[in-house]
Amino acid sequence: MLSDDNHSLPLYAKVEAVLASSIADGSLPPGSQLPPEDSLIQRFDVSRTTVRKAIQNLATRGLIEIRRGKGTFVAQPRITQELTELSGFVEDMQALGRTPTARLIDKRVVAADSSVARHLALAPGTLVVRIQRVRLADGVPTSFDETYLPRELGDKVVTHDLSVEPIFALLEQKYGMPLVEAEYRLEAVLAQEDIAAALGIDAGSPIFLVERTAYSADARPVDYEKLYYRGDMVRFVTRLARRRTNTTEV
Prior knowledge:
Layout: H1 11-24, H2 37-44, H3 48-60, E1 64-67, E2 71-74, E3 79-82, H4 89-95, E4 100-111, H5 114-119, E5 127-137, E6 140-150, H6 151-157, H7 167-174, E7 179-190, H8 193-199, E8 206-216, E9 221-230, E10 234-237
Parallel strand pairs: 3-10
Antiparallel strand pairs: 1-2, 4-5, 5-6, 6-9, 7-8, 8-9
């Protein structure tokens, strides 16, 4: 039953508030499954429509996620990544107190298409090394990474255990290739079937695509990546300075 507190609120908002409070105080921890609709209807003595409205609002707020055919689960807290400096996944997760791991999906030599070739300053069709991995934070799939390296460099990198060793660390510490800057491009896309399967989400789910080209000290592009981040787990923040303008009153 619902209490009479906040009696002016509609019933769905009261149900929503109670469930949100249980999530906030840890009674419903991240990853736990919410009781089924019938149980919530009985617990709160409300209609199915009321319960569904409350659940939808919680999903919109990012507090829960609805997995078709599986149920409704408390969402993992979103990972906030700052776009203020060039850093790798392992560095980012460690800075947030998360445990980063990786699962290698594929590594092979492929012909660079026009986009890959442009980002690595190569001729289209040049052979490059493509590495595909799923990156996990605290055991939860967070991003699907597709990395392209020039063939000579990539052939060296793939000899290492890429489920453990970060590529940035290998480039800088093993092969004397300091990374000094990178170009980022970020857009919202829908997860294709293969990426969705790797991340454990539904095909068509909203995800972030980050295209990142990292450059060495001589302004040579050495690493081009397409990073697909789960939209329900990650948010990006940055801090921008105001552009200085000359304002002369006439």
